[in-house]
Write a structure and sequence with these properties.
Largest sheet: 8 strands, mixed
Mean pLDDT: 82
Low-confidence stretches: 47-63, 121-165, 431-448
Strand content: 25-35%
Helix content: under 10%
Structural class: mainly beta
Number of helices: 2
Number of domains: 2
Radius of gyration: 30 Å
Shape: elongated
Length: about 450
Amino acid sequence: MNAGAGDDTFNVGSPAGSDRNVDGVRSALFLNGESGNNSLSYNDQDNGFLPLTIILPGRLRENPRGDAYTVTPTTVTRDRSAVVTYGGVQRLTVNGGWQANDFNVTPSAATTFFVNGNNPTPITIIPFPLPIIPLSLGNSADAPAALLPTPIDPLPFPFPFPEPEPQWDRLNVSLAGTTSPSLVNTGPGAGTYTFADRMAVKFTGMESANIPPAAVVGRQVFYNHSVYDGNDGAASAADDGAIAPDKQALLPGQSATFANYTSYVRGINGVMVDVKGLPASAALSAADFAVHVGMAADASSWPLGPAPTSVTVRRGAGAGGSDRVTLTFADNSIRATWMQVTVLADANTGLAAPDVFYFGNLCGEVGNNPSAAIVNALDLSQTRALQKTTQAITGRNDFNRDGVINALDVAALRANLLGQIPMYSAPPAAGVFGATPIRREGLFAVVP
């Protein structure tokens, strides 16, 4: 079927209140929207009869699973129906039936998906053995008759199942090949998946959903205990003002430049990591990070460095609304060396793989030689000439970061004259084998 110009809507099946659903789709359908803003609704609101839970001696038999719906950028189907192939559709809505269903969705670059589960029929617990009476159950007039024991003790939905596989609507959004997947909970059983390279997947009426792995989206070094954070050594929101805007983390596979190491007199005493998708239950500590220091070419030989003196999390304070994790270190504990920071992949961080980055420090170096990091007479001469002037946070000669070039900066440089660190080349990231794991949280009520 080819639609004409303008905004068109395709309806497959019938909405709630009807006695018809996509059971009627017995042969393949091909739907093509032309120009305009076109929609496709795939409705499966009536499944005909009520599923049951029966207690047998010594074991609970669960409410049988319903259907599996598969949604891709070009097709939509239910496992008992023919495939619907579509194109030129900007909005696709899938309304699942009343049983406990699975929704398997592959996001599209052109179509926004709206996937609506419906709370499965209330579970009925039936004592056994007891006398039986005939009883007709169903959502429609043609529902089959069933013989049930009596009395019947109905339990309201949801019911705490004793087996590990809850019989509720489940959503699984394929994250393979997507960029920056994110899940935001918009209400009970509802949420929106967003991506940098796909259209959104919005859903309601789900009791469980897969959660995108967390991702590190920012890495900063900051001048803790400097004029830029009020000379306060404790972690706080004021530390954002002390971030070195001209410095960036050295990542695996990169070679160092002056942008990757600081010249702060107190060394590296503050690092921030922005994490998108940090689990709501995360209680981060030093145990979720590994810190090594060294200057050898092989970073695997570097010894453990000092542990952070504090690890704090500020929700929503990071880049793009991510969560900002601040690590502070004792003054002068990481000085004139390179530091490797590894954010571990564990239940607290939610990462699928460890995130590794590096920062260096060499007090007195002003970056006048791009191929070497060494404090020499040229650095001293330049700093002495700039005494009694002010510099911004990016100033190369303000080693104590108080905003002024003076005798304190000259003294700091002299104390480190001829000091040097190598222009380090970070090894490539270790390969990650197998599929990216997806964390599952059971009931959607606990999904952050």
